[in-house]
Amino acid sequence: QVQLVESGGGLVQAGGSLRLSCAASGSIFSIKVMGWYRQAPGKQRELVAAFISGGSTNYADSVKGRFTISRDNAKNTVSLQMNSLKPEDTAVYYCNLLVSATGAATRGYWGQGTQVTVSS
User: Fold this and answer.
1) With contact defined as beta carbons under 8 Å apart, do 6 and 110 qualify?
2) Along the 120 residues of the chain, how does pLDDT read in single tens digits?
3) Hey, is 85 helix, strand or coil?
4) Burial class of residue 8 in the structure, from the number of CB atoms within 10 Å of its CB (0-12 exposed, 13-18 middle, 19+ buried)
5) Which is nearest to 89 in space by CA: 77, 78, 80, 99?
C-alpha cells in the first residue's frame, strides 16, 4: 500500500508565494510520474504541473513562469513552488503519483488535497 501526505497550503495575498509538498511512503518500487492537479469550485480537476517520462516537465499555460515543480527521488517527494499567486489560482491542490508498488500493479495514487486560497 502507498500513502501520500500533502502539506503547505494556506491563505495568501495576491502576489505572494506558497510551497506545496507531497511525500509518498509505503511499499514503493518506483515512481513513474509525479504531478500536481487542482480543482476550483464548480470546475473540473486540471493538471497544473508534472514530471513525465524521461524526466521532462509539463506545465499548464496558466502557471508557466510562476510555478515550479521539483522532486527528491531519495525521499519520494514532489513539491510545487508557487510564486506571483493570483486569485484564480484558488483551488484544492492534489498530488498524483503513478507508482509501481512492491508486489502490486502500477497504479495512480492521489493525495488528500490541500486548500490554496489567494485573496485579492
Assistant:
1) no
2) 899 999 999 999 999 999 999 999 998 888 888 999 999 999 999 999 999 877 799 999 999 999 999 999 999 999 999 999 999 999 999 999 998 888 888 899 999 999 999 999
3) coil
4) middle
5) 80
**If we measure between CA atoms, which residue out of 113, 85, 118 comes closest to residue 10?**
118
Cβ atoms of 34 and 80 closer than 8 Å: no
Q: Which amino acid is at 39?
A: Q
Return the bridge partners of 110, or none. 96
SS3 label, residue 63: helix
Strand partners, 12: 118
CB 94 within 8 A of CB 86: no
- 108: which 3 cell numbers? 495512480
- Residues present in the chain in total: 120
